[in-house]
Amino acid sequence: MTIFKDAPNVDLAKELALDLLDPANFTPMSSVAGGLFMPAYENLWTDELLAADPNFAIIKEQVSVEDPFIGASWPAEPNAAIDAIRAQGVVEQMIANVTSKRMSAADAVADAHQKIVDIFEEGGIMQP
Questions:
Q1: Using an 8 Å Cβ cutoff, are 120 and 103 in contact?
Q2: pLDDT digit string (tens) for 78-106?
Q3: Domain tally for the chain?
Q4: 42 and 14, same domain (yes or no)
């Protein structure tokens, strides 16, 4: 929620934000939002909200990770080979090959896999 500088009724906007974050108001809104409007604070993960959709418990688990996302290699330690995959656009090229019909999905996956193997082996991480 954002209150812009020089906005009229700043005090009322703050009151609205706090009211919306009250679990009594937040839970009904979040429970019908299909996962698009989820808690940012631990106290908003109420039993009622978690019971609204079986996927919400999974979302809560995912956003409550003690050691959060630290890069594309997560949950492994940061890795230059993984960064190289992203830098070279291997995944994006794979999708482009399929959507442009240059390759079948199976061929595009095989091509991307080989590029990833090449990147790892070039970096000294030999693949079986």
A1: no
A2: 889 999 999 999 999 999 999 999 999 99
A3: 2
A4: yes
